Each structure stands twice: as structure tokens, then as C-alpha cells.
Amino acid sequence: MPRRYVQLDVFASRPGDGNPLAVVLEAQGLDDATMQAIARWTRLPETTFVFPPTTPEATHAIRIFSPRREVPFAGHPSVGTAYALLDAGLVTPRDGLLVQQGIAGNLPLRVHGEGAARTVAVRTPRARVQEIAAADDTRLAAALAGLQLGALPPVQMDGGRRWWLVELASEAHLRSAEPDWDAIAALAEASDSMGLFVYARSTDPVYYYAVRAFVGAPARFEDAASGAANATLAAWLAERDALPSSGGFYRVSQGREVGHDAIIELTVDADGEVWSGGRAATVVTGVLEWPEA
Amino acid sequence: MQLDVFAARPGLGNPLGVVLDAADLDGASMQALAAWLNLSETVFFLPPEAGADYRIRIFTPGSELPFAGHPSVGAAWAAAQLGLAQPRAGALVQQCGAGLLPVRIEAEAGRLLPFVRSPRARELARHEGPLPAGLEALAAPGIAAALWDNGPRWWLVEAASAARLRSLRPDFAGIAAWSNATASTGVAVFAFEDGADHQLAVRAFCPGDAVNVPEDPVTGSANAAIAACLHRQGRLPGDGHSYVASQGRELGRDGRVAVRVDAEGDVWIGGQVQQVIAGTLDW
Asked: Of B41, B158, B193, B215, which one is the catalytic site residue?
């Protein structure tokens, strides 16, 4: 049976700038092994599968798979799936909100605007400070060698997955930084974290911070657009009272160093909840033919 | 669209991206799209020049290729299945970076079965002494490993049995070191296997060439090199001029590569193709 299928680029206004995602809009009848096989076959960072919700509060239910395993929650798949469902006319926001049912529970998504100007943001799981480190912490020394640090101290944040967040002195310095992959992998393994997430203030009129996310383990790569990691940065800035003054809203630029150019929008609301989102661009619209197990 | 090549049903073969109407895309756009799709290869159809029935350009996520087997098999299927080209007595001519290449479209049980002629393979070297990377333990006695070149360069290692081949846990670091030291693409290990629908089992390791895909699920060039090697030894399995190889089972796939060796000694590689995703592209 043919199923509606979409591939989109999330946190991007133009195809190619963001983080790719595949969405199977009608996944009824697919079992876990089949979903995993499809996600392996698409070779994209994540593939999501949409089901009818089983609770009245939810507008849709999703399962998220990387090529290797099921993921309980991830930012860019949640945002992209909601965008695809809105585009296909399969969901209608209630008071500007969608509610996604997933294995991490129900999560709200806020929808702004229409068409190409539409943005979707997901409320991210609460992040907390795991540990604040001194700038000269020996565990960080190898990974931070050669980097000029900013004013805030290095911190390990836990937002489901853990990241070391390190402020750098300037955007120019951040963009030219050369990651030491052996040191970052060693840091990730020793601290049970994803790796190193660096950020620097920008004077650009569009974005307030520029960021780069170096995943050290299990694979080593620089992420093009990290919804959840950016949400932990927003929580850290809120903790330090370092958010920009514009109502807890700011944008970050990520991915230029790996051939992308993503813009991610962060909002810290009055309750201290962090919303992570942005635009998406639809690249492939079609149908998927895959036999049920 | 996205196809699954060398597959009897979706998910068993090697994926391929296909853009049917690429006349308005330049090379940089094709490269960017191929990188974004992240498939091992994506092909772009362009208007053919004189002497060709269809024209493609082939891109990996990182570069353009003059020729590759699985993209050509998938492109031939798309051209015939969708009516982009009309075979004459089963023959088509594909234009690609390597020039004009003959293609055959056969029919089997109502399905199109495309074959592409592989570039001539030649033997470059033989390995003396025990094989590195733990391969000596499974090698068939008395048969030296040989390095063959048909564009890619594969070390061909015959295993003593299919059981040993299928249970091999490859030493990727050792294989990468051997490949890099000998300027080769990787190592293709094969064994005769008396299967219900195949006569040869194949695994192809290329950890030095493709760090993120250290074992390739289904490999046209490696299968063509093995066929050339066995043909020269007069040891082709099957009926002596055609056989089917099984590859990819150890990776959760289960590809089938149909191999033909013609009267001139040329090797043809083919297989079933499944259409998995059909749709439109905005780029």
C-alpha cells in the first residue's frame, strides 16, 4: 500500500541549509522492525512515523528512528513532522498549539504564521545544570586547547542527552575553530555526554548567537542543526540571567562550517519552559511503497 | 524517486536516488542535492546526445563518478520502466561520464531485469604469503588473493566456505591498512554457495575508502571483478556463463546480483529494481 511520504529540511528557509528529515505520514500497520528497516534505508539522521493519537489531548502520535535505533525525543524531527502534517492538512492547531504523543509523553508544539513563513517550535524537556566547571578544569583542557573562552564558565547541561556548553570569545573565533576530535571523543566518553557545544555572541541583525555542536561519541561529526542542544543553551542562559532582553526570544546560526546554514529560534517563556523551533523546507513530496512485515 | 537496486523487495538492496528531469540543475546543485539526500549515489537524467538513448550524471554525497554499477542498473530500469527510452531488441545505450555504455533490458516473470556491461577488469597483482587482517583463517587453500581493477580496485579473496564467509567478523582496521597500503578500494571476499536462488556469496569491505560504510551492502564493481577472475580460471558457477550472487545478508539486507559473461568475455551486471519512493522534488 502506498503511504504519503515527505522529506524536508528543518531549521532552514531554503533546501540544503538545515537538518534533513524523512516523514512517513501514514504509518499504520508498520511494526517496529519495519520502521527501523525504513529508517536505515533512508540513511537520513532521523525518520519519523505518524500514527493516529491514542489520547484525546494529542493531535498526532509519532515514533522517531535514527538509522540505528529508536529515539525517545529529538527536536528537529518533532518540528519537521509537525510542519509536514500542517502542510498536508492532516492536523489543525488548537489555540495555536499541536500536541505530539510520543514515547517520551505528550509534548506541545506552537505554530506561528502560514505557508513559507510558518514556524513551529516544540517545548523541550526541562534541562538542568549537571555541573559547572572551572575554565581550567583538567578534564576539559585537551578539548578546549587553543580556544579563547568567553565570560560564562563551561557547564554540563542535561536535557535528556548531556552536552558540555562552552562560550567562546567571538563569532569569528568560533567559526574558525578546529575541533580536536580525539579530545572531544575522550571527553564525551569520560563524562557520558554527547560532546562539546560551543557558542559565541554575534552582532548579526538576524541571530544573537552562533553555535557549533561537536558530537564525540558514538560517532564523530559536527551536527548541522541541533534543536535539543540549543534548548539546553537557552536553559543555561536563563539560569545565568544572560538571555537577550527581547522577551526571552532569540535566534542562533548553526551549520555553516559543515555546508549548511540553519537558523534555530529559541524562546524561554514566563514559566521557564524552553521552546525550540524554526522554519522547514519541503524537498520531496511523494509516496513510499514498503511491504508490511 | 528512490529505488532499491539488486533487491527482490524494498529494503534488501542498495538505495539509489533518481532525479528524472534534471536539465535545469547545474553540477553544483546536483552535488548539493546528492549530499543532502545522503544516499550512496544519486543519478540525474539529462537530454542525451547523439548515439545515446538516455544520459545520466552520477553523484555520491562527496563527488561525481564517471561510472558506477548500481546507479547504472537503477537508471536503466527507470529509463525502460518509465518509457524515457525505447529498447531496440532489448538494447539501450547509456551516456555517462565514462562515455557510451551498452545496456540490456531483459524481462523475467513480468519484471524488467536491466544489465549493464562492466568496464573490462584486469589483474594488477597477487598477494604473496599469509593474508593480513585475519583473512588467512578463512581463505581457500592454494588460491592466491589477487588485486583486480575495473575502475575501483578490489582485492579478491576466495573463502574456503560460505559458512566461514558469512560468520566473518571483519577486522576493519586491518583491512583499511591493507587497502591504503596497496592503493585499493577494499577487499571482496566470496565463496561458492549452493543456495536456492544463488550460486555465490559475496561480502565487500571498504573501510579505507568509505569510513562510514565499512561494509558495502551490494556492490556492482566487486561482483564484476569476481566474475572476471572466475571466468579467467574457468570456474564460473552456475551454467558457466551466468549466475546469481548473494550479498548484504550480514548487514540486514539480502541483495541479489545477476551476473552474465558474454562470448567476448565481457561481464554484465544486473538485478531486480524496486521503486520505493515516488514523488516530486523542490530544490
From this structure: B41
